[in-house]
Specification:
The protein is mainly alpha-helical. It has eleven helices and three strands; from the N terminus they run H-E-H-H-E-E-H-H-H-H-H-H-H-H. 34% of the residues are buried.
């Protein structure tokens, strides 16, 4: 595994930065299932002490991404097609219908903010920067859901997204599919601004389907 580089963001703790970078690599499939990670090796790669790395890996184990192996480290867990399908189905139920509620209600500052995030998603997709892609993608979806005024909905979807694997993401980076999917975010904003609620719901359903299909490496549903 290649060196991760120095962690520099002052807005997050070292543990948060390590966890974020490891999670993005596991979610995207850059670190495959079955690979064993060790605290000393990762601490050296990140250029930090063992403590934040150990804390990050324990958190990832609680999220189901890693499994402790006695005297060896942590193994990246396998995710089944059924589990991916169930997660995407739950997200479909929670994220698609609210688009009809949000349509036609966005003010100009919110629209500008969403378009900026959508541009960041496309830029990250074009350069295969998976950590930036996943962070911006999550920010976009949660920002739209926040427009419903339902904080419980936002937190529930946040938790679901933290469990979702997109193990086909690395393979998509070598094709046009990742950029094509990324462009759907801007399309969704256009539909919401135009008060086309039914079309926005349909687009969100198609977008989430990628999680259980192409993005999982299992093919289209």
């Amino acid at each position: 595994m290649s060196t991760f580089g120095t962690l520099l963001s002052p807005a997050e703790s070292l543990r948060e930065q390590v966890e974020s970078q490891l999670a993005s690599r596991i979610i995207s499939g850059e670190i495959p299932a079955g690979q064993v990670l060790t605290v000393p090796t990762l601490a050296s790669d990140f250029g930090v002490s063992a403590t934040p790395v150990r804390e990050a890996m324990l958190n990832l184990a609680r999220r189901g991404f890693l499994r402790p192996i006695r005297n060896r480290g942590f193994e990246v867990t396998e995710v089944s097609p059924d589990e991916l399908r169930e997660l995407s189905e739950v997200r479909m139920l929670l994220e698609a219908p609210p688009m009809a509620v949000v349509a036609g209600t966005l003010d100009e500052p919110t629209v500008a903010e969403l378009r900026t995030i959508a541009d960041r998603i496309v830029a990250a997709a074009r350069t295969a920067k998976f950590d930036e892609y996943l962070a911006a993608d999550t920010e976009f979806h949660l920002r739209i859901l926040a427009c419903t005024g339902n904080s419980k909905l936002v937190e529930t979807v946040r938790e679901l997204r933290q469990q979702t694997r997109l193990v086909g993401l690395v393979q998509l980076a070598s094709t046009d599919a990742l950029v094509s999917t990324s462009l759907e975010h801007a399309e969704l904003v256009d539909l919401l601004v135009a008060d086309r609620g039914e079309d926005a719901v349909a687009l969100m359903r198609r977008h989430i389907t990628h999680v259980g299909g192409v993005w999982s490496g299992q093919g289209e549903d």
